[in-house]
Structures are given as C-alpha cells and as structure tokens.
Predict the 3D structure of the following.
Amino acid sequence: MESATGSDVPSRNLRVLLVEDDEHQRNLLAWMLRSEGCSVVEATSGVQLLEWIGVVTSSPQRMIDVVVSDIMMPDLTSIEVLSGWRFGRWFVPLVVVTAHDDPSLWADAYALGATAVLQKPVQATDLRDAIDRAVVQGRVEAGLRRRDTVQN
C-alpha cells in the first residue's frame, strides 16, 4: 500500500491495541485487523488502555504500533485518555472510532493528537488506510523525539 509519504507501509505484522467496550464492535474490528495480518490485543475500557500502555512503556518486548479506540466508553473516554497522551515520554499513534457524529468531538480528538477519527460502522479499507497513515505519523514522531533527545 502506498502511503501519504510515498513509502510502502504494510498493514500486515502490526501490533494493534484495540479498545472497544461493545463486544460486537470489538469482535468485528478485531476480525478486520486480523484479516489484514495484524496482531491484536483487546481491551474493553479506557482504564485498561492506560494500564496496558503503562506496561508497554516499561516492557519494550510488548510494544505496540498503533491503538484503535472507541471514543465513548463508560469509565474514560478516548478524549480523556488523549488529554494526557502527549505528556509521556512515548508516542503511540491513536485511531479513534465513534458512532457519534459530533464535529466538536472529532475536533477535540484531532486537537489532542488522534491521527484519525473514523465513523462507525467502520469500513475495513478505511480502517486499514487510517492505520497505515497512523504508523507513518508514529514513525515520523518517534524520529523527531529521538532527534530532540540527542540534541538536548
């Protein structure tokens, strides 16, 4: 697949953390991701997302390439998670999925660092394309962070 930067970014072999509280939606999204060759870890809440990310940051062998998360969950929304997202020493690209057609919610997600916002029901090709773009953005962001660390 050709990315926005012109390099070939395969959806396959990516490690994806999928966060969705609705079991049917989680199963469907996990199936789409696995059909693309992704390795999928499933979580059901924003709290589990934060717990998993905490594990990820201290355990490099469990690193993930991208998070796909529902925006509205009963404990923490993706917006609340994103509010603290960029303050850590790490960056994991986040693709948000939502059933809510609220432009201000979408704008908040983008303003806080979401790499994509997809409307449910999500199409497999849209999900794949959003993940590919997120991975490219994540690689660029990681390179910039490494450069800033070396320069400082």
Observations:
- The longest strand covers residues 15-19.
- The chain is about 45% helix and 15% strand.
- The radius of gyration is 15 Å.
